[in-house]
Amino acid sequence: MEPVMKIVKWFFVVLFLMFASLVAYLTLVFDPNDFKSEIVNAVKKQTGRDLIIAKDLTWTFFPSIGIELGDITLSNPKGFDNVSMLKVSKIVAEVELLPLFSKQVEIAKLNLDGLVVNLETRKDGRTSFDGLQTSATEDKSAQLNDTTALSGSLSSLDIGGVSITNTQIRISDKQAGTEQVFSLDYLTLGKFSLGEFATLEYSFSAEMPDMTLMSQGKGSIRVAQDMTQIQVKDFKITNAIAGEAIPNKKLDISLLTQLEILLETKQVHLILDELNAGDIQAKGKVDIAYGHKVPQIIATLDLGDIDLDKLLPQTDKADKAKEKSQAEATQVEPDLTAMKSLDLTLALTAKSIKAANMMTSNWVMALTLKNGILNLKQLNADLYGGKIAVTARLDGRQAVPSYSFEKSVTGVQIRELLKDAADVDLLAGTANFSVKGKGRSLLADNIKKNIAAKGKFEIADGALYGVNIPQMIRAAQAKLSGGSSSTSSSEKKTDFTSMTGSFSVVKGVVSNPDLLMSSPLIRLSGAGTANIISEALDYQLTTAVVGSLEGQGGGDKDLLYGIEIPFLITGTMSEPKFALDTAGLFDAKLKQEVEKVQDKLKDSLLKIFGGF
């Protein structure tokens, strides 16, 4: 046992002497400050500013051998609030051991701690970047040749790792009066070699005027041996966003992605394996060709169940009225010039989407955006027992955008749709509807004023709510006969077998010249208008009894049978008012009675003269 202990003892003695000899060699023979002037000169050449390294470069021997730099600053231009544009507490570059004996430094791992970046924009427009010089004064062709030569000769790149901790970036804009703070807790890159995957992990937070953000990510990255491809694998990102403008003041977002960047062909391929944002779940892929003047993007996205109402801030009626008045006071046409800088093809499917309390399901949508024109080629969805199909076009090339659309609805249960979409309980039945139109301007008021459209509708086996026309006729009939009207409390609705008509929209007014409603009891026909700006209704109709009123609790059938009774619809879409024109009714009845007397007199005269 004793010989073994002696061997162990001498092993550690020799190891200590080797380490001591290495320390003596590095501290006495190899001075890292020999590189200090080279670093300062290189920064001066690249930025035009002075780099200050307050502390001498020193050796570190634990936990590994490295060169340490401290108290490094790069100044802002004169007159800025923050003297330094960039400040670093400590940089430690861990080095390979063997090359040091040949007086060569090869970085094994880079550690950066306490980086502070202060970026300012002054009220006069000056920024922290003003005056920075690059190597633009050098011959650009020489730079290109040097870069090409470097990438061609680089057969291997090995880095033990990169660790960046405690970094803060402060962005102050005096013109906008805003300040944003980004804090990077850490960013680490594991052992890195060309052609091999290395771990990549980060954690940062941000404080912005209207929200805060916390984000973490972890995955793997690989750079191809020939430096033409970058891959990011199984990158999982989790974000927590908070702010007054955020739905429910907080939103958690997580995603899992795969990314491939092809540097030679200038293409990006992104696969979205998972996306969870609140209650939203999605997956898809995006292909980007960024080598063109206008980037080309092809995206496919598959969504689950989406409740957009949950993503919007909850406001009461008073808040909505205040927001509406503020919006009306500051109405500005949206700037769509950015549409010219994108070439997008999007295919989207969704299990269900709820918006403005209206539910749709089984979405299939296809659109393109090119040269400032958005073309909605297809939007099909299930809607309240039926289907909706929409095509549309938005031209954003002019200061005032223009649009056109075509929409059809088939087999929809109209009562449920109107109640959810507009809180209007007016009609029921199975509806078919089609409309085609166009307009200019995307401001809410201008859309109502400028839209021009034509369409038609038909509703089968439905009801008109808020009025019982047969009951109104029975009441009028009772007055004519000198009796009293029924006191039975019938439901305020009028059943019908069909309602049809066409319409046009001009200057905010919907004109319906040929409304026709039929049932086994009555027929209603005529024309009217609906003002989509004021929501006012104005219909001049006539109704006639064509069958027994027994179907809705009626009595006699003959008294008003066949008489066309004036019928008015006024009020608003949300609160319509229905009325029989009594004066017109009596005129029509009197006319009918006169015609009956004339017919009897005619028959009597014929009998008299027929007897001669």
General description of the model:
The chain is an alpha+beta fold. It has a domain at 457-580. It contains 9 helices and 29 strands. The protein has a 27-stranded mixed beta sheet that branches. Strands 6-9 form a two-stranded antiparallel sheet. The radius of gyration is 40 Å and the shape is elongated.
SSE order and pairing:
Elements: H1 2-28, H2 36-47, E1 51-53, E2 58-60, E3 66-75, E4 84-95, E5 107-121, H3 140-153, E6 158-159, E7 161-173, E8 178-189, E9 192-193, E10 198-208, E11 211-223, E12 229-242, E13 250-262, E14 267-277, E15 280-289, E16 296-307, H4 308-311, H5 317-329, E17 343-355, E18 358-370, E19 373-383, E20 386-395, E21 402-413, H6 414-422, E22 427-440, H7 444-450, E23 452-465, H8 469-480, E24 493-506, E25 509-518, E26 522-531, E27 537-545, E28 565-571, E29 576-580, H9 582-610
Q: Using the alpha-carbon principal axes, give the shape.
A: elongated
Q: Residue share in helices?
A: 10-25%
Query: How many helices in DSSP terms?
Result: 9
Instruction: Give the low-pLDDT segments.
Output: 6-29, 133-155, 551-558
